[in-house]
Amino acid sequence: MRALRLHGDRDLRLEEMENPPHPGPGEVQIRVHAVGLNHIDVWGFRGMAFAKRKMPLVVGAEAAGAVVAIGEDVTHVDVGDKVALYGARTCGICRACVEGRDNLCENVGGIMGFHVDGFACDFVNMPQRLVVKVPDEVSFEDAACAPIAFGTVQHMLFDNARLEPGESVLVHAGGSGIGTAAIKMAKAIGCTVYTTVGDDEKGEKAKALGADHAINYRNERFEGEVRRLTKRKGVDVVFEHVGADTWNGSLLCLKRGGRLVTCGSTSGVSTTMNLMQLFQQQYRIFGSFGCSMRNIRESLDKMASGLTPVIDTVFPLEHFAQGLERLESRKVFGKILVRF
Ligand SMILES: [Zn+2]
Fold first, then answer.
1. What are phi and psi of 76, to 5 degrees?
2. What are the phi and psi torsion angles at 213 (to 5°)?
3. Which pLDDT value is given to residue 142?
4. 169: CA distance to ligand 1 center in Å?
5. Is residue 294 within 8 Å of residue 315, measured between CB atoms?
6. What is the DSSP string of 280-294?
7. Distance from the CA of 188 to the center of ligand 1, in angstroms?
């Protein structure tokens, strides 16, 4: 089978590999059809000195495919089913796993495509508990956005920030894969959505998705604009993933008692913050990473009911690195996928 393997920093090769063996008990074999690209792939590609990982490494952390073989005792899915794949090797038996807080697994065996082999290959074996059946009406491309992009946003907005209908939310980088998903999900429950974008064209696209206000952060300070638009009240929730460049501005956008949820730091990992402001304004700050299996099911249900991902580009497998470049370029509006 074909597999896209990373041999060292920025050294990605399309190679032939042995197919995986027939799936063992409780395992299923999946023919991968689409892989979603995410910032974690960019970190992996560039290399992270502190990350312990095997090399060469099959890349790809987010995917969907079709079940082609099942092992003994497989009951959740059958041959021919369309499935989305959970991208972390959770243990399935610790307290967090048993309680459905999969992304807090105490014995996680690594993130697929980052620490251990991922999904950018023709066939992969997975434990049945880490695959989620995809509704018929959802395409492979859309389903490939469920395990990380949609799942992460679902977890951030609804499990962590507990966004309620009628509330206001500021979504940073409204053109990103998760930004586009956050705009659509927040709008779908009747929230007022403010979003930041890097150019006016993206602003128009974000509005077409349902954003009520798009702020071009290159022309104006977003925090001033959000405070002006909310008549100085601020928003209930800020959806952060930009990091150092926006962190303090994001806090200034919050109402008293507002919630900030973050899953990324693409502009830098360190910042200073005013602790007096934190406690006096009674902010609540949530770190969020990944999602639960339930969040993937919720995401697929949303897709089936018409809340589909915004897809920027679909590249063929051999252009995975080009996809990463596009992801880094910030020209992107929506998700970048690789199709098999
Ligand atoms: Zn566990």
1. -70, -35
2. -140, 130
3. 98
4. 32
5. no
6. HTT-EEEE--S--HH
7. 32
